[in-house]
Amino acid sequence: MAKKSTVTPLHDRVIVKPAAAEEKTAGGIIIPDTAKEKPQRGTVIAAGPGKKDEPVTVKTGDTVLYGKYSGTEIQIDGQDLLIMRESDILAIV
Amino acid sequence: MAKKSTVTPLHDRVIVKPAAAEEKTAGGIIIPDTAKEKPQRGTVIAAGPGKKDEPVTVKTGDTVLYGKYSGTEIQIDGQDLLIMRESDILAIV
Amino acid sequence: MAKKSTVTPLHDRVIVKPAAAEEKTAGGIIIPDTAKEKPQRGTVIAAGPGKKDEPVTVKTGDTVLYGKYSGTEIQIDGQDLLIMRESDILAIV
Amino acid sequence: MAKKSTVTPLHDRVIVKPAAAEEKTAGGIIIPDTAKEKPQRGTVIAAGPGKKDEPVTVKTGDTVLYGKYSGTEIQIDGQDLLIMRESDILAIV
Amino acid sequence: MAKKSTVTPLHDRVIVKPAAAEEKTAGGIIIPDTAKEKPQRGTVIAAGPGKKDEPVTVKTGDTVLYGKYSGTEIQIDGQDLLIMRESDILAIV
Amino acid sequence: MAKKSTVTPLHDRVIVKPAAAEEKTAGGIIIPDTAKEKPQRGTVIAAGPGKKDEPVTVKTGDTVLYGKYSGTEIQIDGQDLLIMRESDILAIV
Amino acid sequence: MAKKSTVTPLHDRVIVKPAAAEEKTAGGIIIPDTAKEKPQRGTVIAAGPGKKDEPVTVKTGDTVLYGKYSGTEIQIDGQDLLIMRESDILAIV
């Protein structure tokens, strides 16, 4: 389970923990690290308060989908996380 | 028929299931996969609530036309879908 | 005559049927297909409802002029049409 | 004199008939067609109604100056005209 | 003195007569035409009425400073002038 | 500890003192200067008053995360600092 | 001391006299002209009235910091000055 973050995103930013990339292909073949596709699915770890008159819709614990190149990679407490604007989030699963 | 999605698009996003590409040309010749044109027609699987004061116009089940390079490809429950902003949708058929 | 379309453009989009390109030059010489200039004149087949507080000005049946590279080519009921924003339309003839 | 156009420009568009390029230099030398500078002066043939709360300032018959690469070339009733936004017009002479 | 122009700039445009480029360097050496720096100082010949709720600040006769590549060159009554938006004017001397 | 700055940022600017880059890798190997990654973590030294109706959220002493290429490097009282807009700050730790 | 300018910046422009570049390095070595870094610190010589509802914050005499490539170089009364928008000013020292 994703550890609750002690980091507070500013404004409409959201911190997302990307889901672990699948280690095996559908046929059961183990794929090397570089061939793994970056996941586009993750769990919201922390969400900012939103912008003026526009509160953020997602909340901690939501599983979300996001664009392939969305967000900035940051490392907090040893975890590789992404911080992105809520507008980079496409949908809640 | 398109399976109802359990994914909720954020704001003005819409999830569209592209129509299957035509397997045969008008003359009945079977065309290989790479030569098929990406369809620009699909079915709305899920639509977000819209933006502030601007509800989304399309609804689940609508057949829509969209631009050739619109949307981000996502895979949900094994289906290849597109998620796009409603402004990328050109018309309802 | 242009067939009435069963497609409803979204927001401020307009569907235009381009006028047939002239088959002969002024001197009566038949020009091959690739040398024909794309027409910039067409007939409105369908117009969207417009944007909030900004209804669309053109209406079905209007002959309009538009920029050379305006619009997206779509095929509806076997007709090659263009779908564009009303702001791409320059004038009503 | 410029013939009154039967074309109605949309919104803030203006149709301008470019002034004929000078056939002779100041010294009386006749210059070939390709060496003639595109004129930046023309006569307003038709003006649109303007945008919401912003009527168009120029009117049919005005001689106007415009930027070198302004407008789209269109042919109406055999005349080579330019259609441009009023914001491309620099001044009324 | 700058001749009063019969040209009326539209909206927030201003017509400026560039100051003559200095013919001599500080040391009295006459410099050839191509080595002269384009002046960034000129006299306002005519100013438009401004935009909605934003009248133009400069007035005819003001000496103004403007950016090196500001404005469009136009020729009116044999004078080489510049027409620019008031926002291209940096200061009144 | 970060010395209080005598510099007042304008509007929504924030002055940040970047955290010192780690001198050793996790395995204890000392890394040369050029191989050190620019930190993305720092301490707020001074924050501007914000923009009209939008006060700045961060305050002096906050530890913040920011994007890799955010801000302009400035030197104040011998310290290498960054000055950035508050919108470049991703989160408060 | 900076001479009071007789130039009035328009709108939100500010005229800044860059601080003289340091002639010696910390170790006392005299550096040639081309190796001197452009200063990012200067004194406000004149400030415009600001934009509608947004008066300018800096005032004549303020020492300010600005971005490396901010502003346009102008020469007034033999002084090399910079004219920039107030938004290019980062902080008041």
UniProtKB/TrEMBL annotation, chains A, B, C, D, E, F, G:
Q: Extract the SUPFAM superfamilies matched here.
A: GroES-like (SSF50129)
* Chaperone recorded as keyword: yes
Alphabetized InterPro entries for the sequence: Chaperonin_GroES, Chaperonin_GroES_sf, Chaprnonin_Cpn10_CS, GroES-like_sf
Query: CDD domains of this UniProt entry?
Result: cpn10
What keywords were assigned to this record?
Chaperone, Cytoplasm
**Where is it chiefly localized?**
cytoplasm
Compartmental location: Cytoplasm
Which domain of life does the protein's organism represent?
Answer: Bacteria
UniProt cross-references to HAMAP family, sorted A to Z: CH10 (MF_00580)
Q: What's the stated role of this polypeptide?
A: Together with the chaperonin GroEL, plays an essential role in assisting protein folding. The GroEL-GroES system forms a nano-cage that allows encapsulation of the non-native substrate proteins and provides a physical environment optimized to promote and accelerate protein folding. GroES binds to the apical surface of the GroEL ring, thereby capping the opening of the GroEL channel.
Q: How does it assemble?
A: Heptamer of 7 subunits arranged in a ring. Interacts with the chaperonin GroEL.
Which family, according to UniProt?
Belongs to the GroES chaperonin family.
The name this protein carries in UniProt is Co-chaperonin GroES
Q: Which organism is it from?
A: Niabella ginsengisoli
Lineage of producing organism: Bacteria, Pseudomonadati, Bacteroidota, Chitinophagia, Chitinophagales
